[in-house]
Specification:
171 residues; alpha+beta; SH3 type barrels; 5-stranded antiparallel β-sheet; 4 helices
């Protein structure tokens, strides 16, 4: 049975394309400001970092701090982290000015000949280095206020060995 319509447009009308609006990314359970996370992918996998805040893009802003374990201010997708039960008291940290624009690559598109210059060391922009120093100083004072040896915990790498069962572990 074919459904009949009582009204047809006089001329063909273009149909508007449906667009889906992306909702704001919700943080995983247990992730709060000051939570210690373990990175599971990338250059710094296995390192423990401190969660600072969620950015507008939905990514998480984390830091090592750099003075402790060498992890700089980074944007991280929460899919590549493990949440631990450890917390660092970061209330009162001044994180204004830290947004997605700070992490955008300001260099123009690479030209074809740039592949031969791969050995050149990449430099960090001055504003990013200043933001790193400001956040590190605040985090170090927060870490010193904790009575437990938190810097040693953040410095230690996380890895699994042959007989470890991650599904049975309590992070």
């Amino acid at each position: 049975m074919v459904k009949t319509f009582s009204w047809y447009p006089a001329e063909d009308q273009k149909r508007s394309v449906r667009t889906k609006k992306q909702n704001k990314t919700r943080l995983r359970k247990g992730v709060e400001e000051g939570s210690v996370l373990i990175l599971t992918a990338g250059k710094y996998r296995g390192h423990r970092v401190v969660f600072l805040k969620q950015l507008e893009s939905g990514l998480m802003l984390v830091s090592g701090p750099f003075k402790v374990n060498g992890v700089p201010l980074k944007r991280v997708n929460q899919a590549y982290t493990i949440v631990t039960s450890t917390k660092v008291p970061v209330k009162g940290l001044k994180l204004d000015g830290l947004n997605d624009a700070l992490f955008k690559d300001k260099s123009s598109k690479s030209k074809g000949r740039d592949i031969f210059n791969e050995n050149q060391k990449k430099t960090v922009s001055a504003d990013r280095a200043a933001a790193q120093k400001k956040v590190d100083d605040q985090l170090m004072t927060a870490l010193k206020a904790v009575k437990t040896p938190m810097t040693e915990y953040l410095r230690a790498r996380f890895s699994l060995s042959k007989n470890d069962r991650p599904h049975a572990m309590k992070f």
